[in-house]
């Protein structure tokens, strides 16, 4: 085990949460001329600390390799539901905090400007911090200022030196991507104004456990967080969590609200206590709960493969929708390749024409579905299943059906 100590509290790590076998980097999509080359596979193993209950992946590649090479393939703006989520959040938080042209909003992992564009449209000063230069460039072309850096204490000092301390510091789906949580949260404390507010969104470990969302575990996600654990991490660095919201994004996330520990307001909401109580009731404060997860994962694999084997035996044509990281983890863990899935479609043109890592399934435009009329559409981006089923409703015209693999295989 490469990471022998907890990334937060430095306790020796002895317990496995889930072992998904060997897989290539989930975002390392292949071009045609790369198909005959040797791919590098890595162990996808998540472990759990029995002291603070931080679930953490063994570090297999550096963040610089995965995010900082200028070829990062994830662009937030290709999901309509995610843009809607960002717009609703921006309207809510602007009103809640009374943000205006004298305020400063800083977003960590600002991607292609999917979020900051809504603040900028209301003349609120913004700054994005984004390590992937290719997606940062898209935001910059919208006129959004972006610092192309990984975030931590050193970047925080740079932001402060520029006079950009935040009235609102936000980050969506970045906390889980950070190998050095202590450096990251210490940097947040520096960037946040004395009276500033921070919000962070990340997949909720409670939903991962209860919803059997094992494909959320991949090499970009170093940490899997409960409120019980994340509260301890922030408190260690002088930040108090005063509110939390349970939200449906990414299969079930939480949005935490934080402030400096010495800031008198806002007061701590009852929701903090309610969500922690829910986690305790689910056993997230007991190591036994974590040790049971791996067996459920194996059962889900068997059920999905049983469905696919039966469908192919009946001569059915199966294609997949979505080429997200979670989809690649699922395909490689289950050993699903072109013998089961003819092709995958994705709306992101940066992925079209490429091939899924490991499985080598081709990625095409969604229009291909209406040409070939498959019997089943396996939704790999299952967290967007409602959006996908609405977009692809026409498959019903030829008797096509949707298949959702998580929490277990279901046909719609």
Defining traits:
single chain, 412 residues, alpha/beta, Rossmann fold, seven-stranded mixed β-sheet, six-stranded mixed β-sheet
Would you mind describing this structure in some detail?
There is one protein chain. The two termini are 41 Å apart. The chain has 2 domains: 215 residues, Vaccinia Virus protein VP39 (Rossmann fold); 119 residues, NAD(P)-binding Rossmann-like Domain (Rossmann fold), CATH 3.40.50. The strands form 3 sheets. Strands 6-5-4-7-8-11-10 form a 7-stranded mixed β-sheet. The protein has 412 residues and is an alpha/beta fold. The radius of gyration is 21 Å and the shape is globular. Helix 5 runs parallel beside helix 6. Helix 14 links the parallel strand 15 and strand 16. InterPro entries: Methyltransf_Zn-bd_dom_put (IPR013630), Methyltransf_Zn-bd_dom_put_sf (IPR038576), MeTrfase_14 (IPR013691), SAM-dependent_MTases_sf (IPR029063). It comes from Aerosakkonema funiforme FACHB-1375. Keywords: Methyltransferase, Transferase. It holds the Pfam family Methyltransf_14. GO terms for molecular function: methyltransferase activity.
Summary of the model, kept short:
The protein has 412 residues and is an alpha/beta fold. Helix content is 33%, strand content 21%.
């Amino acid at each position: 085990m490469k990471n022998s100590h907890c990334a937060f509290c430095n306790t020796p790590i002895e317990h496995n949460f889930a072992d998904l076998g060997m897989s290539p980097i989930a975002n390392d999509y292949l071009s045609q001329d790369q198909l005959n080359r040797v791919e590098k596979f890595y162990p996808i193993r998540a472990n759990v600390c029995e002291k603070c209950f931080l679930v953490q992946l063994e570090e297999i590649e550096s963040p610089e390799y995965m995010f900082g090479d200028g070829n990062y393939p994830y662009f937030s703006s290709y999901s309509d539901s995610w843009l809607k989520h960002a717009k609703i959040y921006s309207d809510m938080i602007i009103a809640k905090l009374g943000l205006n042209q004298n305020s400063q909003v800083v977003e960590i992992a600002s991607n292609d400007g999917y979020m900051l564009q809504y603040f900028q449209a209301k003349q609120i000063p913004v700054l994005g911090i984004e390590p992937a230069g290719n997606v940062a460039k898209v935001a910059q072309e919208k006129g959004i200022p972006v610092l192309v850096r990984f975030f931590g204490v050193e970047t925080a000092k740079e932001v402060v030196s520029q006079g950009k301390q935040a009235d609102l510091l936000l980050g969506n789906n970045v906390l889980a991507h950070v190998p050095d949580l202590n450096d990251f949260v210490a940097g947040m404390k520096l960037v946040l104004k004395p009276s500033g507010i921070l919000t962070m969104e990340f997949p909720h470990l409670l939903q991962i456990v209860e919803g059997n969302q094992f494909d959320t575990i991949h090499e970009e996600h170093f940490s899997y967080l409960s409120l019980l654990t994340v509260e301890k991490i922030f408190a260690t660095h002088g930040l108090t969590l005063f509110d939390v919201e349970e939200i449906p994004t990414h299969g079930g996330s939480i949005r935490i609200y934080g402030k400096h520990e010495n800031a008198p307001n806002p007061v701590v909401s009852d929701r903090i206590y309610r969500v922690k109580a829910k986690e305790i009731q689910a056993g997230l404060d007991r190591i036994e709960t974590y040790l049971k997860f791996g067996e459920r994962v194996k059962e889900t694999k068997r059920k999905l493969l049983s469905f696919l084997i039966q469908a192919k035996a009946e001569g059915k044509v199966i294609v997949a929708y979505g080429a997200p990281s979670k989809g690649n983890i699922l395909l490689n863990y289950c050993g699903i390749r072109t013998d089961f899935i003819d092709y995958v479609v994705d709306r992101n043109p940066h992925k079209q024409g490429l091939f899924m890592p490991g499985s080598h399934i081709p990625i095409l435009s969604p229009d291909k579905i209406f040409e070939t009329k498959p019997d089943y559409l396996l939704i790999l981006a299952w967290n967007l299943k409602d959006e996908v089923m609405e977009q692809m409703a026409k498959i019903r015209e030829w008797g096509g059906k949707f298949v959702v693999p998580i929490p277990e295989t279901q046909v719609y």
